[in-house]
Amino acid sequence: MIRFENVGLRYDMGPEILRDLTFTFAPRSFHFLTGPSGAGKTSLLRLLFLSLKPTRGLINLFGKDVATLSKRELSGIRRRIGMVFQDFRLLDHLTTFENVALPLRVQGKAETDYRADVVDLLKWVGLGERMHVLPPVLSGGEKQRASIARAVIGQPELLLADEPTGNVDPVLGRRLLRLFMELNKLGTSVVIATHDINLMDQFDAPRAVLEDGHLRIEE
Hints:
By secondary structure, the protein is an alpha/beta fold. It contains 7 helices and 10 strands. The chain has helices at 41-48, 71-78, 96-106, 111-124, 140-152, 170-185, 197-201, and strands spanning 2-10, 16-25, 30-34, 56-61, 64-65, 81-84, 158-162, 189-193, 207-211, 214-218.
């Protein structure tokens, strides 16, 4: 599913913030990505989402060397990935329902085919009464849940989440993690960046620890 070989990343002429990353994540795997603040967790997720190019090294996703792909092929790869951003990236002119349904609309599906699934998921994440409002009306926690619902609604092959429980209470945080776990059981590979040690301790999953620009896997 994911293979990095000697990947390094720097911004402009600054020092490398990620150095010699070499690792593989198997299909259907689940990993927490953790490490101190500023370690590069968000940058690594951006590399995985193909919104950032490495300074050096090889990145292979879904069996393809991403450096050799055309823009159309990269777009096709990205559609196989669900991403939960820290800044949510909801579209303010679309309702909560429309934001969550957007990946399915992009796939060309008719609303009659997906409406019930979107409604059920919004109810599950506690947004059943907020599905027809616009994002500016939502609280930070509600925007976070809408972003998560949008990322998982299409059952992507790879799910990336950047601090997905940072704006919710611990009880809802555990519930959202269970949602990710269930998606993983259905075949989605999951990588969740978090600094919440207490939350990670409640789930049995390997940890990919970023520190001093290097990555180590703790089973």
